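seq as requested:
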Amino acid sequence: MYGELYQYFILYKQLNVPGVGTFLMERTPATGDFPNKQILPATFAVSLQQATVSPSKHFFNWLSAALNISDREAVIRFNDFAFDLKKQLSAGSKIVWDGIGTISKGLGDEFRFEPDATKFTFDSPVTAEKVIREKSEHSVRVGEDEKTSAEMREYFNQPEEKKNYWWAAALAVGILLIIFIGWYFSEHGMKASSTANGQKLTPVTSGDTYKPL
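struct tokens:
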């Protein structure tokens, strides 16, 4: 019956075995393989939960069809299988279930489970290449306005205007002039005479410009 139960588990990804536990197929999300430019599909691994749920009527209908027996006989044979499996495990036997894993006795009434190293994959890798659309346009929020990406590229690609720094030269000349004036008055004082010509003037006596009669 191991083979038939394995088929059911692969189809429905869950198998309840009374007295042993519930086998589940856990999904690992798809991953990106960027060096090879592809996306690897999701994988599945088997786990065992100690809590068990009684198999559904759908399970026994499927099992009876797979074994070509009546539903009543399917119930009896499955219960015998579960009972015998638990008995072997409780006695210390190690059960190797191909495709599922290895089951052995653990602490107390629990069983230890080592899943099969094989991971299930139901899809194929997908090619994934990064697409760069250099000229594609989209809306860009700029403050309260909305502009297109083309308008923003044009704005940032505008040639930078050459700045005129004539005022800096004028400011430097003004500062030098102020410094010079300050130095001048510190050397000559603040009197009005300090700014006048200090040379003494001597009157020139002219000769007679007329003769007496």
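The helical segments are 2-12, 57-67, 71-90, 149-156, 166-188.
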